[in-house]
């Protein structure tokens, strides 16, 4: 017996996918992100590694990124600005092709990043202002259709305080906790309980210090000066979340960078993301890192696999 997920535009990469049950059931990973490009800057090499290993991976994108600034001077053109939503949709299509993942849009409107003192109000109808249940319902539907064993999202601060990132955290946690309960979110499919929920720890202090040191050792100028100043100001203040899980994925850093470059409105090929050579990155920090926030299976920390404790249950 198998479940077939219909290949419509809002589902899985435009093709029907078989979901074998029983002992042949594949592992499935869902990464929930706020905007197109977030999936390529956070956890992309991890996803590429698991795709190569035969894991089914789905990126869920909460908004269309319509209010994002154009950060690549070469793309700062009137015709791009005039159709930024469609441009970013096309960029996302290219990035998911490079990563080999499926992707689903939740259809909410980008909230923009408020700046100023005092901060301006968020625009009416944006994702960050949606009631929690309204914002979570389509994600619960996606969870119940795709049936992930593992979910990835941001911590409660969103990784950085963009209102859409914070909202993404809130709906991800709500969906993780609600999707397995048949009494919650009726009409969104049969219950499915993911087994583990992780937060991205992409820009941990340890990683930044290691990359900075490696650049100096190689005789290269480090791009992390401002980060070091901030660390000095923070002193020995402990991190809010510890890194529990380091996924080896250095062989897929180049794929990650190609996916980043696909988001041409957001990523300057001459910018920050590409200052540290790949060989330096692979030597200094060959993993992408996570905090295990929820687990319904026994696992021993630290981990080197998001599916630790799950493989034995699913792939016997």
UniProtKB/TrEMBL annotation:
Coiled-coil zones: none
Any single Pfam family the record assigns to this protein: PIG-L
Keyword Oxidoreductase: no
Entry cofactors: Zn(2+)
Reaction equation(s) it catalyzes: mycothiol S-conjugate + H2O = an N-acetyl-L-cysteine-S-conjugate + 1D-myo-inositol 2-amino-2-deoxy-alpha-D-glucopyranoside
GO molecular-function terms, A-Z: hydrolase activity, acting on carbon-nitrogen (but not peptide) bonds, in linear amides; zinc ion binding
Transport in keyword set: no
EC number: 3.5.1.115
GO biological processes: mycothiol metabolic process; mycothiol-dependent detoxification
Binding site for Zn(2+): 35, 38, 165
Keyword annotations: Hydrolase, Metal-binding, Zinc
InterPro entries cross-referenced by the UniProt entry: GlcNAc_PI_deacetylase-related, LmbE-like_dom_sf, Mca
Cofactor comment text: Binds 1 zinc ion per subunit.
Complexes and interactors: Monomer.
Function noted in UniProt: A mycothiol (MSH, N-acetylcysteinyl-glucosaminyl-inositol) S-conjugate amidase, it recycles conjugated MSH to the N-acetyl cysteine conjugate (AcCys S-conjugate, a mercapturic acid) and the MSH precursor. Involved in MSH-dependent detoxification of a number of alkylating agents and antibiotics.
The family this protein is said to belong to: Belongs to the MshB deacetylase family. Mca subfamily.
Protein name per UniProt: Mycothiol S-conjugate amidase
Organism encoding this protein: Actinomadura citrea
């Amino acid at each position: 017996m198998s479940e077939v997920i219909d290949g419509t535009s809002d589902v899985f990469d435009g093709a029907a996918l078989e979901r074998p049950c029983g002992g042949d059931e594949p592992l499935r990973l869902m990464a929930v992100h706020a905007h197109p490009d977030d999936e390529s800057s956070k956890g992309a090499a991890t996803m590429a590694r698991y795709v190569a290993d035969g894991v089914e991976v789905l990126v869920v994108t909460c908004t269309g990124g319509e209010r994002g600034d154009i950060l690549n001077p070469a793309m700062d053109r009137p015709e791009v600005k005039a159709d930024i939503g469609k441009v970013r949709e096309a960029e996302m299509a290219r990035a998911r092709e490079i990563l080999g993942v499926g992707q689903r849009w939740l259809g909410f409107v980008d909230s923009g990043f408020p700046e100023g003192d005092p901060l301006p109000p968020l625009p009416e109808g944006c994702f960050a202002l949606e009631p929690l249940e309204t914002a979570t319902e389509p994600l619960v539907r996606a969870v119940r259709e795709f049936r992930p064993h593992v979910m990835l999202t941001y911590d409660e601060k969103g990784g950085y305080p963009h209102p859409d990132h914070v909202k993404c955290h809130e709906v991800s946690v709500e969906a993780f906790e609600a999707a397995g309960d048949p009494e919650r979110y009726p009409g969104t499919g049969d219950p499915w309980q993911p087994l583990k929920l992780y937060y991205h720890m992409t820009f941990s202090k340890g990683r930044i210090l290691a990359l900075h040191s490696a650049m100096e050792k190689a005789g290269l100028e480090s791009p992390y000066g401002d980060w070091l100043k901030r660390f000095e100001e923070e002193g020995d203040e402990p991190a809010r979340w510890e890194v529990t899980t380091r996924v080896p994925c250095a062989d897929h850093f180049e794929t990650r960078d190609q996916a980043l470059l696909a988001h041409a409105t957001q990523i300057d090929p001459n910018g920050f993301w590409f200052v540290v050579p790949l060989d330096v990155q692979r030597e200094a920090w060959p993993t992408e890192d996570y905090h295990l926030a929820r687990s319904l299976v026994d696992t021993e920390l630290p981990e080197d696999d998001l599916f630790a404790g799950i493989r034995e249950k699913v792939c016997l």
